[in-house]
Design a protein that fits this description.
17% helix, 36% strand, 658 residues, alpha+beta, seven-stranded antiparallel beta sheet, Pdz3 Domain, 5 domains, globular
């Protein structure tokens, strides 16, 4: 492996030189000025990669992680000719991007040498290959090796390692593994056979090099060159390999379905065994087979109903599912300088993972320290969703940009105070952001929660002025917990609490966030207190019968499992509210997983909700202890945990040595 040309036999050396002369003119080094978004800013940096000319008009294929976030591109050929280039389109899921050389408009179009994409489907282990590119931003180079594995995939414990823009190429790509030495900068370069054909685009180096097969490269580049993007279908279906404890010899285990997605609407359930999809057999015995299923799913026609055969409770069931168009997980980010934040639109899946029923709103991705959004009280934070600015709803980024421009044009002041409505988890908050030049002011702490079974925010002086009543003091209700005292009494989100049993509230600063809670705690459970609120133009006195506050997280029962090496605790009231877990669902929260322990090796993570063990519902920590103790006495070789992670459910197998 890693042979130089001079170390090869004469005949092979001649063959290598012929291939280099044939393919070399079509290879380029790519200089990239790319953008990243962090700390409330668009941050630019320079990087380098490789690319392959695939059309005479100067179309070049490279990796998404090389050029997908490019603001400026320049390419250099082996003969040192340099040209500016532009991004045609990019596909994070396959890690493929297409750029095109920009030719001067006042000169005749130039034809560029183009490489030939070969047939990657006929590649075999042991085939001789050359890796050609520009490693470490150096001029082009060639290394030789053999194909080690023509269908290389990542094991499950490395899932997500290549994630970019929220997409994981490992879900789709089956790489050509080879031992021709590659380095950073080789990304986007060619993997070439001894016939002078490009059989792959080099992407990863994990001991072995990995190249995206030419078949997938051809499919993606043709779509981008024709439409500017790649169209794929989406089912909202999580599948995994069949459990080792399963007696079934075919099918894929349905781990979970995305609420509201096509599979959910069609009636798929976690635990189903998917046997066929669109009359094609489905078989996932090992996790390395999942990418093949994802390619089948992606190739379906959006909005065209297809049949799916499942095995459920020992019976075959046929469902009809209608795939939808797969949208990007993370739409493009944008810096809003007057706000001091970076933002993006919400995708459907991201909205679901945030327990949102709609994609309306603009997602805050980062906040600049000392900027207008950081100065606000309360301050905006990453993962907040802006739903209105002033009197204008902001269902998407385009509307927020237009609204911001309009607000700034309506005044000559350097700073424009704007009442902003945003959502944070289950709360609907308001704040005042002074758009314009940022100031270096540290953000205030979040308001503390009360025991009225509501969440509240302090009516700061800025908010009071924005509401038209500068003398207003007290609290605004941002969330009402179902079936709690406030809910039963009829309190609503947006009500302004101004007094308790005739005692006026005086809070007007974030530092006074505990005033309401302190007053409420003075009353024993079952007491009736009179809450005076402002609702619109009305002043109302509402009697509220207080309940005993639910236990806090620190009060919940815990169990340290020294065998599986994890800590679990009972769910709290707030766990259910924040995760939108219904009372019909029981489970225990995984509070800690020790790295390298049995639970960690099985894939359990801190924050997972354990729903069942070997089919027994885990209602609380005591049940968990009994399940594990029974398994220990029986010396079971495997325990099947059904877990909930975000909006996803999954079955994992933990294989302890008792």
């Amino acid at each position: 492996p890693h042979e130089s040309i001079t170390a090869l036999p004469d005949a092979e050396e001649h063959q290598v030189r012929r291939v280099v002369e044939q393919v070399g003119p079509a290879l380029v080094r790519i200089s990239v000025v790319e953008t990243d978004y962090r700390d409330g800013r668009e941050v630019k940096s320079r990087s380098f990669g490789s690319g392959v000319v695939i059309r005479e008009d100067g179309a070049i294929v490279t990796n998404h992680h090389v050029a997908g976030r490019a603001r400026h591109l320049r390419v250099t050929f082996w003969n040192r000719e340099e040209y500016d280039a532009e991004l045609v389109g990019t596909d994070p899921l396959s890690d493929i991007a297409v750029i095109r050389i920009v030719q001067p408009p006042d000169t005749p179009p130039k034809k560029f040498p183009a490489a030939i994409l070969g047939d990657s489907d006929v590649v075999k282990t042991g085939d001789r290959v050359l890796a050609m590119g520009s490693p470490l931003a150096l001029s082009q180079s060639v290394t030789a090796g053999i194909v080690s594995n023509p269908r290389m995939t990542l094991p499950f414990f490395m899932a997500g390692r290549l994630r970019q823009e929220g997409e994981d190429p490992g879900e789709l790509v089956v790489w050509i593994g080879h031992d021709a030495e590659i380095f950073p900068g080789n990304s986007g370069g060619a993997l070439v056979n001894f016939s002078g054909e490009v059989i792959g685009i080099n992407e990863i180096q994990l001991g072995l090099g990995g190249a995206i097969p030419a078949a997938l490269v051809r499919q993606v580049t043709e779509a981008i060159l024709s439409n500017g993007s790649v169209t794929r279908a989406w089912l909202g279906l999580d599948v995994q390999e069949r459990l080792k404890s399963s007696a079934q010899q075919r099918g894929a285990l349905v781990a979970g379905v995305i609420p509201g997605g096509p599979a959910d609407k069609a009636g798929f359930l976690p635990g189903d065994l998917l046997l066929t999809l669109d009359n094609q057999p489905v078989d996932i015995q090992f996790d390395v087979q999942i990418p093949e299923f994802r390619r089948i799913e992606a190739a379906l026609i959006p909005n065209k109903p297809i049949p799916a055969t499942l095995l459920r409770d020992g019976r075959e069931v046929t469902l009809e599912v209608t795939p939808t168009l797969r949208e990007p997980y993370e739409p493009r980010e944008k810096e809003l300088i007057p706000w001091g934040i970076t933002v993006r639109d919400l995708s459907y899946l991201k909205a679901r993972e945030m327990n949102r029923d709609t994609t309306d709103g603009v997602l805050v991705t980062s906040v600049r320290t000392g900027g207008p959004a950081a100065e606000a009280r309360p301050a905006l934070q990453p993962d907040d969703v802006i739903v209105s600015a002033g009197d204008t709803p902001t269902p998407d980024l385009k509307t927020l940009l237009q609204t911001t421009e309009k607000l700034l044009q309506e005044t000559s002041e350097d700073r424009v105070p704007v009442l902003v409505t945003f959502e944070r988890r289950n709360e609907r908050l308001i704040t005042v952001v002074s758009l314009g030049k940022p100031a270096l002011v540290s953000p205030a702490a979040e308001a503390r929660k009360s025991w009225l079974a509501v969440d509240t925010q302090v009516l700061t002086r800025e908010i009071a002025r924005a509401l038209g009543n500068p003398d207003l003091r007290g609290f605004r209700i941002t969330s009402v917990f179902p079936n709690g005292p406030a809910d039963r009494a009829g309190l609503r989100v947006g009500d302004l609490i101004v007094s308790v049993d005739g005692t006026p509230l005086t809070a007007s600063r974030q530092e006074e966030a505990e005033e309401l809670a302190v007053l409420v705690r003075q009353y024993p459970p079952g007491s009736v207190v009179n809450i005076q609120i402002l609702r619109g133009n009305d002043s109302l006195d509402i009697p509220v019968t207080l309940d005993l506050a639910p236990p806090a997280e620190r009060e919940m029962k815990r169990f340290r499992d020294d065998v599986l090496e994890l800590v679990v605790r009972d769910m709290t009231f707030r766990d259910r509210v924040s995760r939108k877990i219904s009372d019909q669902i029981s489970g225990v929260v995984t509070e800690m997983v020790t790295g390298g322990g049995w639970a960690d090796l099985g894939g359990l993570r801190a924050g997972d909700l354990i729903l069942s063990i070997d089919g027994t519902a885990v209602e609380n920590v005591s049940v968990y202890e009994n399940c594990v103790e029974t398994a220990r006495k029986q010396e079971r070789s495997r325990l099947v945990f059904k877990i909930r992670r975000g909006v996803h459910t999954r079955f994992i197998e933990i294989e302890p040595k008792w």
